[in-house]
Amino acid sequence: MNETKPTAVLQPDIDHRPADHPKARSGRIGVLLLNLGTPDGTDYWSMRRYLKEFLSDERVIELPRWKWWPILNLIILTVRPGRKGKDYQTIWNNERDEGPLKTITRSQAEKLAAALGDPERIEVDFAMRYANPTTDSRIRALLEKGCDRILLLPLYPQYAAPTTATAADQAFRTLMKMRWQPAVRVAPSYHDDPAYIEALATSMRRDLAKLDFTPEVIIATFHGMPQAYLEAGDPYYCHCQKTSRLLRAALGWPEDKWLTTYQSRFGNDPWLQPYTDETVKRLAAEGVKRLALVAPGFSADCLETLEELDGENRHYFEDGGGEKFAYLPALNDSDEGIRAIEAVVRRELSGWL
Ligand SMILES: C=CC1=C(C)c2cc3[nH]c(cc4nc(cc5[nH]c(cc1n2)c(C)c5CCC(=O)O)C(CCC(=O)O)=C4C)c(C)c3C=C
Ligand SMILES: [Fe+2]
Ligand SMILES: [Fe+2]
């Protein structure tokens, strides 16, 4: 006689599960802040591992692999780890033995958790696209803690495929391996969000007031990207230009004393322009004596701001005859910075909370 088995799907609580069926906690919400990453150390091998992972990402370098592989492995990874390791040493957080990007992102996660104020229900964590803590490990940790809904928040106000999209790709790589996936949302870019623009303006007003000079020119500088990515449809440039325009307007700063530029060119192809370093040198040559730089695209200070802007570009300006130079810090874990992130998170959690 044929025995009809009860349908497990319709009667999940009538226990036909094997004894070792995994127990899963559920019912909580995870908020995962995603940032770029930073090397685990400034030594040659840590730098090399980090740069290899970063520069092997096809979202970052879009060249065909057969063309890129020898350039990366035979040239870049022999020279750059040593040179950049020295740059990282100048900004390293020796107390924690980590890059400032990691220290600041951790603090943002802690302060965001406090601001959301519902630790029973909401778990906040942070992860990196490259190096540690890995996105995979932090998604799994959220699941362990009972989060079956996860909001991913790439900490890039301006969307770019080499940053935002690759952060999401990395999270979905982990989900691809799961039988029971959590529900996942990816927060959209917030380049024109009033909470973000207001936070930038508040922070800049405060830092400008602390200076012993009034800048003749302010440069809003953003991390660069190959011009070809813009031409292929990446909205990053348009997002940066809009952030810059809204920020200047919020400050009421004169249009003819505000410039928008792009930094950190890598390789020989044209990147987004005007270039920050060339602009700084030009202004000094034209007789500008007092200059301030702000980097609204960086949610945390890092190599690109502390070493490249406050270090290298300060020298270009001073060596060119400039007298007063200021780099105005990123939002970091300031109260206004956390308020901006909280506003984005609360909006994107609607329906879940
Ligand atoms: C070579 C291609 C790169 C593209 C395209 C790119 C885009 C891009 N990057 C950021 C933000 C950051 N980048 C940082 C460091 C960094 N960026 C690149 C290359 C590209 N970035 C490299 C190789 C490095 C490492 C340092 C170096 O070797 O020069 C950082 C700082 C990390 C830290 O630890 O401090 C940030 C942040 C954005 C927003 C962006 C957008 C298009
Ligand atoms: Fe970069
Ligand atoms: Fe750089």
TrEMBL record:
Pfam families: Ferrochelatase (PF00762)
Name under which the protein is recorded: Ferrochelatase
Family recorded in the similarity comment: Belongs to the ferrochelatase family.
Region of interest (Disordered), ranges: 1-23
Compartments reported by the entry: Cytoplasm
EC code: 4.98.1.1
UniProt keyword Iron present: yes
Annotated organism of origin: Hyphomicrobium album
Pathway terms, separated by semicolons: Porphyrin-containing compound metabolism; protoheme biosynthesis; protoheme from protoporphyrin-IX: step 1/1
